[in-house]
Amino acid sequence: MKNKLFANAVAFLLIISVLSCKKEPDECQGKGIADISNISAPARGAINQDVEILVKVVLSNGCIKFAGFSEVLENGNLVVSTNIKLDGCICTDIYSEPELKYIFKRAIAGNYKIIFKNAGSSDVEKVITIQ
To answer: Which of 33, 57, 80, 111 is the most exposed place for a label (fewest CB within 10 A)?
Structure first.
Protein backbone atom coordinates (compact mmCIF):
# COMPACT_ATOMS: atom_id res chain seq x y z
CA MET A 1 0.00 0.00 0.00
CA LYS A 2 2.83 2.41 0.94
CA ASN A 3 4.67 1.62 -2.33
CA LYS A 4 1.58 2.32 -4.42
CA LEU A 5 0.93 5.60 -2.58
CA PHE A 6 4.58 6.59 -2.99
CA ALA A 7 4.52 5.72 -6.72
CA ASN A 8 1.34 7.76 -7.24
CA ALA A 9 2.84 10.75 -5.40
CA VAL A 10 6.01 10.59 -7.50
CA ALA A 11 3.99 10.33 -10.73
CA PHE A 12 1.82 13.28 -9.68
CA LEU A 13 4.86 15.44 -8.87
CA LEU A 14 6.52 14.48 -12.15
CA ILE A 15 3.44 15.47 -14.16
CA ILE A 16 3.11 18.78 -12.29
CA SER A 17 6.78 19.64 -12.84
CA VAL A 18 6.60 18.87 -16.58
CA LEU A 19 3.45 20.92 -17.05
CA SER A 20 4.77 23.87 -15.06
CA CYS A 21 7.94 24.07 -17.19
CA LYS A 22 6.13 23.96 -20.49
CA LYS A 23 6.03 27.35 -22.21
CA GLU A 24 3.65 28.46 -24.88
CA PRO A 25 5.09 27.96 -28.39
CA ASP A 26 4.61 31.65 -29.23
CA GLU A 27 7.01 32.64 -26.45
CA CYS A 28 9.78 30.54 -27.96
CA GLN A 29 9.23 31.31 -31.65
CA GLY A 30 9.33 34.55 -33.56
CA LYS A 31 10.49 36.55 -36.53
CA GLY A 32 11.97 40.00 -36.85
CA ILE A 33 14.58 42.25 -38.37
CA ALA A 34 18.21 42.11 -37.28
CA ASP A 35 20.30 44.90 -35.83
CA ILE A 36 22.92 45.97 -38.37
CA SER A 37 26.39 46.83 -37.10
CA ASN A 38 28.03 47.68 -40.46
CA ILE A 39 27.39 47.82 -44.20
CA SER A 40 30.14 47.89 -46.79
CA ALA A 41 29.04 48.76 -50.32
CA PRO A 42 30.83 50.11 -53.39
CA ALA A 43 29.72 53.47 -54.73
CA ARG A 44 29.54 52.20 -58.33
CA GLY A 45 28.54 49.14 -60.29
CA ALA A 46 28.04 48.08 -63.90
CA ILE A 47 24.82 47.33 -65.78
CA ASN A 48 23.76 43.68 -65.42
CA GLN A 49 26.65 42.92 -63.07
CA ASP A 50 26.37 41.77 -59.46
CA VAL A 51 27.23 44.40 -56.88
CA GLU A 52 28.22 42.70 -53.64
CA ILE A 53 27.13 44.47 -50.45
CA LEU A 54 28.44 43.11 -47.15
CA VAL A 55 25.95 43.41 -44.30
CA LYS A 56 27.14 42.69 -40.77
CA VAL A 57 24.23 41.71 -38.49
CA VAL A 58 24.00 41.22 -34.74
CA LEU A 59 22.79 37.84 -33.48
CA SER A 60 22.63 38.26 -29.70
CA ASN A 61 22.10 34.61 -28.71
CA GLY A 62 22.17 31.06 -30.03
CA CYS A 63 18.41 30.90 -30.73
CA ILE A 64 18.49 33.73 -33.28
CA LYS A 65 19.23 32.64 -36.85
CA PHE A 66 19.51 34.57 -40.12
CA ALA A 67 16.40 33.89 -42.24
CA GLY A 68 17.23 35.70 -45.48
CA PHE A 69 16.85 39.11 -47.07
CA SER A 70 13.55 40.54 -48.26
CA GLU A 71 13.00 43.52 -50.57
CA VAL A 72 10.19 45.97 -51.22
CA LEU A 73 9.99 49.16 -53.29
CA GLU A 74 8.90 52.25 -51.36
CA ASN A 75 8.75 55.65 -53.04
CA GLY A 76 11.15 54.50 -55.75
CA ASN A 77 13.74 53.24 -53.24
CA LEU A 78 14.67 49.64 -52.55
CA VAL A 79 14.05 48.76 -48.88
CA VAL A 80 15.92 45.67 -47.70
CA SER A 81 15.18 43.81 -44.48
CA THR A 82 17.65 41.41 -42.90
CA ASN A 83 15.27 38.84 -41.48
CA ILE A 84 15.91 36.76 -38.38
CA LYS A 85 14.07 33.89 -36.74
CA LEU A 86 13.91 33.06 -33.02
CA ASP A 87 13.69 29.33 -32.41
CA GLY A 88 13.84 28.11 -28.81
CA CYS A 89 13.46 29.22 -25.22
CA ILE A 90 16.72 28.01 -23.72
CA CYS A 91 19.37 29.94 -25.62
CA THR A 92 23.13 30.07 -25.37
CA ASP A 93 24.75 33.43 -24.71
CA ILE A 94 26.69 33.27 -27.96
CA TYR A 95 26.96 36.74 -29.50
CA SER A 96 27.94 36.83 -33.15
CA GLU A 97 28.13 39.34 -36.00
CA PRO A 98 28.16 37.35 -39.23
CA GLU A 99 28.91 39.23 -42.43
CA LEU A 100 26.28 38.40 -45.04
CA LYS A 101 26.43 39.01 -48.78
CA TYR A 102 23.56 40.89 -50.37
CA ILE A 103 23.65 41.00 -54.17
CA PHE A 104 22.31 44.07 -55.99
CA LYS A 105 21.91 44.01 -59.79
CA ARG A 106 20.21 46.41 -62.19
CA ALA A 107 19.72 46.46 -65.98
CA ILE A 108 19.29 50.25 -66.25
CA ALA A 109 21.93 52.91 -65.51
CA GLY A 110 21.16 55.36 -62.74
CA ASN A 111 21.51 56.23 -59.07
CA TYR A 112 19.82 53.74 -56.74
CA LYS A 113 19.12 54.35 -53.07
CA ILE A 114 19.03 51.19 -50.97
CA ILE A 115 17.61 51.48 -47.46
CA PHE A 116 18.57 48.70 -45.07
CA LYS A 117 16.06 48.35 -42.22
CA ASN A 118 17.77 48.34 -38.82
CA ALA A 119 15.97 47.08 -35.72
CA GLY A 120 18.41 48.69 -33.30
CA SER A 121 18.59 52.26 -34.53
CA SER A 122 18.26 54.35 -37.67
CA ASP A 123 17.97 52.64 -41.02
CA VAL A 124 21.16 52.59 -43.12
CA GLU A 125 21.07 54.18 -46.58
CA LYS A 126 23.48 53.48 -49.41
CA VAL A 127 23.50 55.02 -52.90
CA ILE A 128 24.98 53.00 -55.73
CA THR A 129 25.52 54.43 -59.22
CA ILE A 130 25.04 51.89 -61.98
CA GLN A 131 26.79 52.78 -65.26
So the answer is: 111
